[in-house]
Amino acid sequence: RSTVNHTAINYYRSNLKPANQVDYSEVQSAIEDTDKDIYQKEYDAEYLLKLIQELPEGCRVIFNMFEIENYAHKEIAEILGITESTSKTQLFHAKKILRKKLLERTSLN
After folding, report:
1. Contacts of 85 (CB under 8 A, 6+ apart)
2. CB-based contact 76:42 (threshold 8 Å)
């Protein structure tokens, strides 16, 4: 990976909120594998971004790297100094949290 990518990862590690730099359309497409009845509803992109920003840091970083920036789990593991299994588990937890929050919103409407 280039120096620019490594610099971006260092920002993640420094607890900055790089999600503000994410294209909203990418955020919406990143959760398309959630339950069909959840995804079929229209969600405001800013609301989706807010949900992602509320994820625990580890989940949020890995969700962004995998779903938004298209890193493979192997690459994420190498960059963050974790195992591939940890990367996959954190992504699973991130999606589970997002799915739950979207279900809650759907049931409120």
Report:
1. none
2. no
Do 19 and 53 form a contact (C-beta atoms < 8 A)?
yes
Q: 61, 59, 52, 55: which is closest to 16 by C-alpha?
A: 61
Residue ranges with strand state E in the chain:
none
pLDDT in tens, 68-83: 899 999 999 999 999 9
Q: Coil, helix or strand for 104? A: helix
Provide the sign of the torsion angle of the four alpha carbons 28, 29, 30, 35, taken in this order: positive
Q: Taking a C-beta distance cutoff of 8 angstroms, is the pair 60, 19 a contact?
A: yes
Query: Tokens for 32?
Result: 């398309």
pTM for the model stands at 0.63
Q: What is the enclosing helix (H) or strand (E) of 51?
A: helix 45-53
